Amino acid sequence: MNNERTSHSFSIENQADFKKRLLRFFEEENYISFLDSNDADGSTYSCLCGIGAIDVISCDSGNAFEKLKNFQEEHEDWLFGYLGYDLKNELEPLESKNSDELEFPDLQFFIPETVIEIGEKQVSFHVYEEDQEVIQQLLESILQQELDAPKSYKQQNYLIATDSKLEYLKKARSFLDHIQRGDIYEANLCTQFLARDIEIDSLKAFEDLNESSKPPFAAYSRCNNHFIISASPERYLKKIGRKLLSQPIKGTAARSKDRATDEQLKQELLKNQKERSENVMIVDLVRNDLSRVALRGSVKVSELFGLYSFPQVHHMISSITAQLGEQFSAIDAIKATFPMGSMTGAPKISAMKIIEKTESFKRGVYSGAVGYFKPDGDFDFNVVIRTILYNAGKGVVSVSVGSAITASAIPEAEYEECLIKAAALMQVLKSQGIAFS
């Protein structure tokens, strides 16, 4: 065994086929994190995967970030894992008392035994193994992995809304009351759908979701019984060297199969004053967060109101960059900006307090972030949205969605936007015998 990772690279003929065989080959691993960019522009890696656990950190909010920093400094290695939304409680005077059916730890990361980069025509293994023949044999075993025949699902179960439509509308109106009183300018109201006493094929769910959505920040993460099946279109924060990049999404429109109508919907989104004002508010919030750890004058909006199209929706995405101050670490950058402004509101602390009092569930991993740290401290994390969360030990599946409430929000329209965002997730679960009730 080597004390440092050795890299072994090989040619592959079919990237998509290799990804499928890789995931099936390691299906029984207790720790795996598969991060797929679907070859989106601006991605550091086409696809990155961490497999097996040399060491693990798992903890709840309290001093989780300090533990993570010590864990990172102790190992100076790759880390894969997630940050739960409720880590907010150790960053600000906040609490989480809502119902938690999923029971995920607030933070989980692992040092992988194997790190795999998958390019279009090449795969690289970063391992504590110097003998290339050993890795060559592993590659051949992966390539020979059988792909399962489609399963039939006979179970009959239902996703049940934590909030009825009437309850959601009442909560949206309470947000509007807070806005009219000047407590907040904008806040993200989320709702949850749950299925209990259920077993799903988590890997099939990810494959179906990733194929239908092709998002730039897809993630399949397993930490023992805790599964994250994500088709996130949104980047929370990326660090390369001293450069930071955040890309909040605010502004959503459904797509149409008719090309002319689809283009019209796209242009209407760009001109929608409510969506633009939401975007600007969150851009300002992210700029303020980044300024806490950035070199003075380095915070820039590199793109405002960028329009991006995905299979189900159009999104308005802005990009904010900054230079991390020399006195600050990678963990400091996360602490200054977490949770993502697009999932909280403005002012941020007031919004999070009102969210906690109004919503019916503990967000947990939802609204948090999944990603990786490199040995040098660089990182990239998504925002956990468009995601199925699954606790296999409890047999609980959750889908959560949200929408931004501003002064001009129409509660009924916000509820419909939530259903649009949930549609692809619900379709994936429906194929496994779980319908929306």
Task: Please describe the topology of this protein.
Layout: E1 6-11, H1 15-25, E2 31-36, E3 47-59, H2 64-75, E4 79-83, H3 88-91, E5 107-118, E6 122-127, H4 132-143, E7 157-161, H5 165-181, E8 186-195, H6 202-213, E9 217-223, E10 226-232, E11 235-240, E12 243-247, E13 249-254, H7 259-271, H8 273-291, E14 300-309, E15 313-323, H9 330-337, E16 345-346, H10 348-358, E17 369-373, E18 379-382, E19 387-391, E20 396-405, H11 411-430, E21 434-436
Parallel strand pairs: 7-21
Antiparallel strand pairs: 1-6, 2-3, 2-9, 3-5, 4-5, 4-17, 5-6, 7-8, 8-16, 8-20, 9-10, 10-19, 11-12, 11-18, 12-15, 13-15, 14-15, 17-18, 19-20
Helix pairs in contact: 5-11, 6-11
Please outline what is shown here:
With 437 residues, the chain is α+β, with helices and mostly antiparallel strands.
